[in-house]
Design brief:
Length: 246
């Protein structure tokens, strides 16, 4: 057996000998790139197959659920939402006014005092007469994975309509359903976005990461907390109500 293995090894070395180290490195890099592309493609197709049937493009056809989930996005220094975030909020507001949802959970980054996505969302909805008790704030929705896991574990959400852009919805709905939430999605696109191409490109990798987080890595959200049951009064999660962020 040892003699046979040695012969195989010498045969392999003989084949590689004509190749320079630079060429071998290049071949290995090409193989790694092709393998990576295969992983990205496969995970993106998987997530699309899991989520696309639960995504709706118009308010009339989306089935009612208890809660609208609004994932965070960048806000301006003057305390106003960017176009991407405002359209997500508009989708949630439309659902609430149509009686499709009873509560709205806004989830975003509020770890630093100088940067606050969730109170910008809270203020936008409040200005449009959504009662404060029906708005829940998740101050630790640092990424989509954290938002969906915390929606279930911290806020006890069992059914939801996720409000975000079309490029982001398959991953969002996939992660929500993986966490046990009976989730569907409503496309929030109301205009052309400045960084749409960049966001779509990033989403290819984000879907692969979501797949790994869900099936292989055993990832947990960065922060726990609660519980703050979504059937209760949302004011318990408000900075202005408690005097501190949750």
């Amino acid at each position: 057996m040892k003699l046979q293995a040695t012969r195989h090894w010498h045969a392999i070395r003989a084949l590689l000998k004509p190749l320079s180290r630079r060429r071998v490195r290049r071949v290995l890099l090409i193989c790694a790139f092709l393998g990576g592309c295969g992983v990205v493609t496969g995970t993106n197709v998987w997530i699309g197959n899991c989520a696309n049937r639960y995504i709706y493009t118009d308010l009339e056809s989306v089935p009612p659920r208890h809660t609208a989930i609004v994932p965070g996005a960048r806000v301006y220094r003057d305390g106003t939402p960017t176009a991407v975030l405002e359209d997500r909020l508009f989708a949630a507001l439309s659902l609430y006014r149509a009686g499709k949802v009873d509560k709205i959970l806004v989830s975003g980054d509020h770890l630093a005092q100088e940067y606050d996505e969730v109170n910008v969302m809270w203020y936008w909805l409040s200005e449009r007469n959504v009662p404060p008790e029906d708005i829940f704030l998740d101050h630790a929705g640092l990424r989509t994975f954290d938002t969906m896991v915390r929606a279930n574990r911290v806020f006890t959400v069992e059914s939801a309509i996720v409000c975000t852009q079309a490029f982001h919805l398959p991953r969002s709905v996939f992660l929500a359903r993986r966490e046990g939430i009976d989730a569907v999605g409503l496309v929030a696109d109301r205009r052309a976005y400045l960084y749409a191409k960049r966001d779509k490109g990033r989403e290819l990798i984000a879907k692969t990461v979501a797949f790994l987080d869900s099936y292989l890595l055993g990832t947990e959200p960065r922060y726990g907390g609660g519980p703050f049951p979504i059937n209760g009064n949302g004011q318990i999660t408000h900075d202005r109500f408690t005097g501190k962020k949750r």
